[in-house]
Amino acid sequence: MSGRRTAMLGIAAAALALAGTVHAQSTIKIGFVSSLSGPFTPWGIQVRDGMKMAIDEINEKGGVLGRKLEVIERDDRNNPNEGITAFRYMVEREGVVAAGGTISSDVGLAVSRQAEAAHVPYLLDKSGSHEILRRNSRYTFRTCLPAAPESVETLAAMIKERKITRVGAIVADYAWGHSARVAIDEMIKPLPGVQLQMEVAPVPEKDFTPYLRKMQQLDPEMIIALGHPPGTPTITRQAIELGMKGQIIGPWYPTEFMVQRVGESMFGRYADYTCADFEHPAYKALAERFNKTYKRMFEDNSFSGYVIVKMVADAIQRTGSVEPEVIAKAIREGTFDQPGYGWPLSYTEWGEMKGAKPLLYTYEKGDPGAVNAGANWRTKVIFRSPPVQPYVPEQ
């Protein structure tokens, strides 16, 4: 063999070794695609920071398969087209192995179609429209908010347990609102002895007084704001100002932000859902760490972001692979049990959560301790739902 050929082979071998080293040391990228502007910003910021906390925690322990994790952030601007562009950029240019954290149902609906076509895991936070998942979905997964019918199923259980007979509801004119409207009609309206009055309002509505006044004659014992996330603080405040006595039920709204928008008048009057078990010791330990770093409460959006990263990392570790298709299969066929989360995450074939058990909580005055240092209020769980049935898509 000539000296020149030997030298060339040596260079090629060195290049291959260097490429292998670079690959081994390169980060594993997980995408955050959610709202950092627009009406769902409070949700999005919490999800992002929960993802960051999980990544920092995993990297401090050496990463996954000897590689560090990295979050790639993109703002969907609460716009389906922006969400599609952000997701495609992450997959095609950044090489993310999974992405998620989306809040808006309109964005979730659009991006999930891209995820299915690209065969890349896409993990939703609060996109709850029942139309997002189809029977042939294999790469889209819910993590916190179940499909709208399952959230309403929780309310129906509470209505029956408390023998509530007069129910009002305000829903928004978009995908999530329509899902909530259909579910309320199917699960609450038929309950024996229940009177239901439902109003539909635009997503950007700022004054809900006219809608609430229409309900005053009914004098609802429960006012469901589940179907209008952006309007929930205003609905709550205006219902109280109008002297309405019913308990107002929110749409999985960011906990601290609700207090900032409405104030103490809602304590004991307003209740909301969570996928975080605020009473669990493991939740409290995580919440103390989050609060120390981010100076905010570790509520269910941040916990969901944390779980998204931990679940993807767990799938990579178990399979020894960073291939998106392998990760999706491991998530779909496995179970991820995060202490302090509301329930273990396992899935139907199409990505709906099995055995979700949403919790309902309210607010009360009191010292929350290190879980939310400096606040003068704390959360109180008032209803633990029995397991709800996974939604089965029509197609």
Residue-averaged pLDDT, rounded?
A: 93
- CATH fold-level assignment of the largest domain: Rossmann fold
**Which class of secondary structure composition applies to the elements?**
alpha/beta
Profile the largest sheet: 7 strands, mixed
How much strand content do the residues show?
Answer: 15-25%
Radius of gyration: 23 Å
Task: Please report the distance between the alpha carbons of the first and last residues.
Answer: 65 Å
The appropriate CATH architecture of the largest domain is 3-Layer(aba) Sandwich
Number of helices: 12
| Order of strands across the main sheet | 7-6-8-9-10-13-14
Polypeptide structure, described:
The chain is an alpha/beta fold. The protein is 43% helix and 17% strand. The chain has two domains: 190 residues, Response regulator (Rossmann fold, 3-Layer(aba) Sandwich), CATH 3.40.50.2300; 154 residues, Response regulator (Rossmann fold). The strands form three sheets. Strands 7-6-8-9-10-13-14 form a seven-stranded mixed sheet. It has a five-stranded parallel sheet with strand order 2-1-3-4-5, sandwiched between helices. The longest helix has 23 residues. The N and C termini lie far apart (65 Å).
Write the layout of secondary structure elements.
Blueprint: H1 3-25, E1 28-34, H2 41-60, E2 69-75, H3 80-94, E3 98-100, H4 105-118, E4 122-124, E5 140-142, H5 148-162, E6 166-172, H6 175-187, E7 195-201, H7 209-215, E8 222-224, H8 232-241, E9 247-249, H9 255-262, E10 270-274, H10 281-294, H11 300-319, H12 324-333, E11 335-336, E12 345-346, E13 359-365, E14 377-384
Parallel strand pairs: 1-2, 1-3, 3-4, 4-5, 6-7, 6-8, 8-9, 9-10
Antiparallel strand pairs: 10-13, 11-12, 13-14
